[in-house]
Amino acid sequence: MSGRRKVQVSFVIREEGERCHRAGVNSLQYDHNLKRLYSAGRDSIIRIWNVGNPKEPYLQSMEHHTDWVNDIQLCCGGKNIISASSDTTVKVWNAHKGFCMSTLRTHKDYVKALAYARDREQVASAGLDKAIFLWDVNTLTALTASNNTVTTSSLNGNKDSIYSLAMNPAGTVIVSGSTEKVLRVWDPRTCAKLMKLKGHTDNVKALVLNRDGTQCLSGSSDGTVRLWSLGQQRCIATFSCHQEGVWALQPNEAFTQVVSSGRDANIFLTDLRQSDRHTLVCRESSPVLRMVLTPDMAGVWVATSDSTIRHWPLSNRVLSSVGVGLGEGAPPKETTVPPTPQQPMVTEPDNIIRGGPSIRSYSILNDKRQIVTRDTEGGV
């Protein structure tokens, strides 16, 4: 008997049809043409929502991952979705029909971030194994069960786990953020290292590039948002409106304004041309993990560590109010007087996709057959 190998079996006990997220939502993508929102859950499920039907938004669940889905990216004009997960895989999906087309097992640890170059149909993936892999989306979507070999190029040089990634639409620049506290920049066409940008004092959790790849915005656990000039290879502005880590950034198309949020759950709109002009748009009830602006800037979808997704309207009054009456914005770090709390301009979301409670703790009873669980709403 001593020679028998122990085999672990894991299985999921839940309702057959889960029409809501059961834990935090790590990523969002919005298809403006179909009015569809895609959400990636810590419950390992990607869900599709018809936001044009607020009363019954649920459309479909995409289930294939076995751990947190950390990031998703719509590509091919909304036909496909790429997902990155803590199960160490990257998956390719048919977004319209909701099925998994192929699985990439190149990473050796949690895959935390994706970046997408729309004009080149190229996707990059990165995570805790410190590696960045580049994928040709048209090759990925052509994979079949019999033809499933795919070549990838990799970007090397990262010394720490990668938590954020950004690529411009033309695919001429890629930037990574990590616990190394620096931004590393490459040319994805040649895989050549271009530069290393220093300034943050903690993990870089959010990155976004402008269209031509000349400017980069970064959000960090140090509580700041920084604007970088890649041409000058330096930080040209620092924004300090948040009290805690910045985990999510969404700029407008012109790269003149940015919506930021994170651990403090405050959602600020900042004018990138004037570092002291911020407006508190709204306040979530839990730390914000991801946001997506609608292309017409009519509102922002917000995902948090709670399972509910909310849409906050951005009226012209909000968009044009950046910094009005705010004096000099956030006080210098040395001041001991706390800033007077601002009142958010928008107090209620206009669309809510409700989530359900998730299991927070459990204990196995003495009979080894029954388990007692407690959920996030206190239910036993």
Descriptive account of the structure:
The longest helix is centred in the middle third of the chain and has 5 residues, at 137-141. The protein has helices at residues 137-141, 316-319, and strands at 25-31, 36-41, 45-50, 58-63, 69-75, 80-85, 90-94, 99-104, 111-117, 122-127, 132-136, 153-155, 162-167, 174-178, 183-187, 192-197, 204-209, 215-220, 225-229, 234-239, 246-251, 257-262, 266-271, 278-283, 288-293, 299-304, 309-313, 351-353, 359-364, 371-375. Strand 22 (257-262) and strand 23 (266-271) form a beta hairpin. With 380 residues, the protein is mainly β. The two termini are 39 Å apart.
Helix-strand blueprint:
Layout: E1 25-31, E2 36-41, E3 45-50, E4 58-63, E5 69-75, E6 80-85, E7 90-94, E8 99-104, E9 111-117, E10 122-127, E11 132-136, H1 137-141, E12 153-155, E13 162-167, E14 174-178, E15 183-187, E16 192-197, E17 204-209, E18 215-220, E19 225-229, E20 234-239, E21 246-251, E22 257-262, E23 266-271, E24 278-283, E25 288-293, E26 299-304, E27 309-313, H2 316-319, E28 351-353, E29 359-364, E30 371-375
Antiparallel strand pairs: 1-2, 2-3, 3-4, 5-6, 6-7, 7-8, 9-10, 10-11, 11-12, 13-14, 14-15, 15-16, 17-18, 18-19, 19-20, 21-22, 22-23, 23-24, 25-26, 26-27, 27-28, 29-30
The quaternary structure here is single chain
Q: Which runs of at least 5 residues are low in confidence (pLDDT < 50)?
A: 323-339
Number of helices, where a helix is a run of at least 4 consecutive DSSP H or I residues? 2
Q: Specify the overall morphology.
A: globular
Note the beta-strand portion: 35-45%
* Rg for CA atoms: 21 Å
How many β-strands, per DSSP? 30
Provide the spatial order of strands within the biggest beta sheet: 1-2-3-4
Question: If you average the pLDDT, what whole number results?
Answer: 90
Share in helix: under 10%
Structural class: mainly beta
Distance between the termini: 39 Å
Biggest β-sheet strands, sense, barrel = 4 strands, antiparallel
